[in-house]
Amino acid sequence: MKPPEPAQRRVSLATREALWAFAFLAIPLAFFLFIRIWPAFQALWLSLFDWHADPSKRPFVGLEHYEQMLQDRLLLKALQNTLAYTLLGVPLQLLLGLGIALLLNAVTRFRDVFRAIYFAPYVTPAAAIAWVFSWMLSPNFGIVNEILSVFGIPPQPFLTKPSQALATVTMIVVWQNLGFQVVLFLAGLQNIPRDYYEAARIDGASNWQLFRHITFPLLNPVMVFSAVIGTIGFLQLFTQVVNLNFTDQGGPLGSTLTLALYIYQVAFARFELGYAAAITVLLFVIILSITLVQLRLLSRRVEY
Amino acid sequence: MRIVLVTLFALWGAALAQGQVTITYWQYDFRSKVEAVNELIKKFEAANPGIKVQHQTFPFDAYQQKVASSIPAGQGPDVVNLFYGWLPTWVKAGYLQPMPAEYIKVLDSEFSSLAQAAKVGGKLYGMPTAVRSLALFYNRDLLNAAGFKTPPKTWDEFLSMAAKLTVKDGNKFTQLGYAMAPDGQDHHLVREVLIRQFGGRPYSDDGRKVLYDNAAGLKAFTFYTDWLKKYNVGTLGNQFFPGNNAYRDAFIAGKVGMIIDGSFAIGTIRNGAKFNWGVAELPLEKAGGRKINYGSFWMHGLTPLATGPKLAASLKFLEFLVSEETQRYWLEKVGELPARKSLIKDPKLTLDKVYGPFVISLSYAKATPFVDEIGQRKVMTDAINRVLLENKDPAESWRIAAAEEQKLLDNFWK
C-alpha cells in the first residue's frame, strides 16, 4: 500500500510570512487611509462647494474659491508671513541646534541634565510660554528691555509692533523647538564611528577639517530630516501665533498672521469652510512641493 | 456584557414609556456661567420631569470650531449659546433655526431694545439672558491723590485727568492715565460711541453700508488717536503691561488711572483690585452732549438638530433660560445685567454704585450689526494701530478701514 502523499503545500513559508505582515500592516494602513488620506480628499471636494450645515444645501461653485484666493489681500499677507517664518526659522533652528549639540557632545559630565534642560521648552504648553514671554519681553516692565537698557539701548516693542513681531515670534518658536533639534543632532553625532576621527587625527587633520569632512557629511541624514520636519512645522505654525497675541490673533496689523491661522479664522469664525478647504489645498501643495525639492537638493549619500 | 445591554434596553424602554426627551445645551467654558447653568438645569428638570438636559462646555477658543463641525454631523447641541455678533454668519451657514413667531412679540415688548440684534431678516433666532454695556472704570485712590474728587464727565476733563495721572521715568512709563486698548474695548468705543458723539453714524439702518467715511467720522477717529499722539494719556495697554488683557490687568495692578471696559469685567476687577475704584458712565463730547454706548449680549439659539419632541423641549428650556426668575439668579450668580426691561428698571440696580452706570447706559446703548465679528474688529483695530504704531496719516488709515469694512459687508450680503 502506498503511503498517502503529503498534502501539497500550496503556500510557501515566505508568502505566508508576507501575508501575516500585510495582515498586521492592514490595521495602521486602514487607519492612515481613513483618518489621514480620506479627509485630505474630502477637503479637496469641499473646496468646490459653498458651506452649509445641511449637506444637501451646499451649492457647487467649481473653482470659484481658487479664484477668490487671487483677490485675497489677507491670504497674500499670510502667505508672505508664513514663508518669512520658514526662511528665518528653519536655518536658525538648524544652526543653533547643531551648535549646541556639538558643544553638548564635547561635554562628558551632566550631559543628560543639559539635554533635559534644552528639551523642557519643547514639552511646555504654548499658553504658558506665551505668558512668560509676554512678561519677559514687555516694553515697559520686561527683563529683556531691562538688560538692553544697561547697554544704553532704548526699550524695544518686540511683540507689540509690526516691525518686530514676526521676528520675535520666530525666536520664541526656535527657542521652543531647539531641544528637539539638539536631541536629534546629538543622536546623529553619536552614530558617527569614533574610528573615523582617530584615523583622520593620525593623518594630521585639524578640528575644522574633522568637522568639514567627517561630522558634517555624516550628519546629512539627520540634517535632511530636521530641515524637512522643521520646514513643515513652520509652514503649519499656529499655536504660538494665537497665544502670543491672543486678543488680536495674527496681529498687530496682520504682521504675524500665518496660513494655518488664517484657515482657522475663515473656517471657524466666518463659517466659510469651503473657502477654508481651498486654502488648505494650497497649503498642502506648498508643503508637498517644498518637501520634495528639499529631499532632492539636500540628500547626499555619504559612505566612507 | 449581556447584563449591560439588557439594562440599557430596559432603561430605554422606561424612558420611552415616560415620554422622556433629552436635549443638549452648549456654552463655552466660563466657571461662573457653567456653575449657574448646572444649577438652572437642576431646577428646570425638577419642574419638567419629562425633559433631561445635557450640558456640555468647551474652551472659548475651540468653541466655534466645535459647533461648526458637530452640527453638520448631527451630533451637536439643540440649544446653543452664541455671541450676538456671530448670528448672521451662523444663520447664513444654516446653524440656527428661527423661533416660532410668537416669541418675536415677547422680545419686542419685554426685552431691552439691544436684543433686537437677535433678529436676522425679520426672523428671531434666539434670546438673551443677560446684556452688557461699556463704562469708565477709575482708580479712585489715584484720582484723589491727583486732586480729582469725581470721575470725568466730558472727554476734555477725561484728557486733562489722564495727562496728569501719566507718570514717566526716563523712557519708561510707571503709571498711565488711561490704558489704550484698540483690540480690547476701544474699537467699540470709536465705532459706536465717538463717531455718534461727533455727529456721525457708523452704519446705515440695515447695517449694509459703512457711513463713517466722512468729516464727522474722521474727526471722531482722529480725536481718539490724538489721545496718544497729542494729549499724553500714556501709551497702549499692551506696551505698558504684559498679558492678554494688558489694559485691564494693569488697572487691576493699580498702575492705571482709568480704563473703558464692559460690565463683564466687573467680576474680574472686583476680585483683583486692591484699592478703591469706581465706575462712571462714559464721558460726553461736551456737557449736555449726546449719551451713547455700545451694548452686546450672548444669546441662546435653536439649532436645526432640535426637531420633533426635542423642539418643544428645547423651546421650553430656552424660555426658562430667559425667564425673569433666571435673569435675577444670573445677575446674582454671574454678575451680568438682566436683558428684561422689567428687571433693568429696578431701582436697586440703577442706584447700585457699580452696576448703576452700566444699567443706565443700557437705555441708550446700540449693538453693532456685525456680520463678520473678527473681520470687522480687525478693520477697526488695524485702523487705530496704523496711526499709533506706524504713524500713518489718520485720514488715510480711516479711508482704508471704511473701504475694507464695506468689502466685508458686501461679501456677506452678496
Structural summary, described in words:
- The complex is a heterodimer of chains A (304) and B (414).
- Chain A folds into two domains: 13-46; 71-298, MetI-like fold, CATH 1.10.3720.10.
- Chain A has 13 helices and no strands.
- Chain A has helices at residues 13-46, 64-71, 73-106, 111-119, 126-136, 143-150, 162-190, 194-202, 207-218, 220-235, 239-244, 259-268, 273-298.
- The chains are: A mainly alpha (304), B alpha/beta (414).
- Chain B: It comes from Meiothermus hypogaeus NBRC 106114.
Mean pLDDT of chain A: 91
Oligomer: heterodimer
Please tally the β strands of chain A and state the result. 0
Largest beta-sheet characterization of chain B:
6 strands, mixed
Summarize the helices and strands and which ones pair or pack.
The complex is a heterodimer of chains A (304) and B (414).
Chain A: H1 13-46, H2 64-71, H3 73-106, H4 111-119, H5 126-136, H6 143-150, H7 162-190, H8 194-202, H9 207-218, H10 220-235, H11 239-244, H12 259-268, H13 273-298
Helix pairs in contact in A: 1-13, 2-13, 3-7, 3-10, 4-7, 7-10, 10-13, 12-13
Chain B: H1 2-18, E1 21-28, H2 31-47, E2 51-58, H3 60-70, E3 79-83, H4 87-92, H5 102-110, E4 119-120, E5 123-124, E6 126-132, E7 134-139, H6 140-145, H7 155-165, E8 167-169, E9 172-178, H8 182-197, H9 215-229, H10 237-240, H11 246-252, E10 256-262, H12 266-272, E11 277-280, E12 293-294, E13 296-302, H13 309-321, H14 324-333, E14 337-338, H15 341-344, H16 347-350, H17 355-362, E15 365-366, H18 373-390, H19 394-413
Parallel strand pairs in B: 1-2, 1-3, 9-10, 12-15
Antiparallel strand pairs in B: 3-13, 4-5, 6-13, 6-14, 7-10, 7-11, 8-9
Helix pairs in contact in B: 2-14, 8-9, 8-18, 18-19
Family (chain B): Belongs to the bacterial solute-binding protein 1 family.
GO biological process, one term (chain B): maltodextrin transmembrane transport
Signal peptide (chain B): 1-17
